[in-house]
Amino acid sequence: MSAVNFKMEPDHLAADRSLLDIKSLGPDGLEDWITRLGQPRWRADQIFRWLYGRSGISSFDAMTNLPLPLRKTLTSKATIGTFAVNQMQTAADATVKALLRLPSGRSVETVLIPDFDEQGRVKRLTVCVSSQVGCAMGCTFCATGRMGFQENLSCGQIADQVLLMNTLAVKKYGRGITNVVYMGMGEPLLNFEPVTKSLQILTRPDGLGLSRRRITVSTVGIARRIRDLAHVTPQVRLAFSLHAPTDSKRASIMPVSHSQHALLAPLMEALEYYRRATGQRITFEYCMFDGFNDTAEDARQLARLCRRVNARVNLIMYNAVADVPFTRTGPQQLNAFIERLIELDVTVTVRRSRGAEIDAACGQLAVRPSAPQAD
Question: For the residues 349-360, what does the mean pLDDT come to?
Answer without folding.
Answer: 61
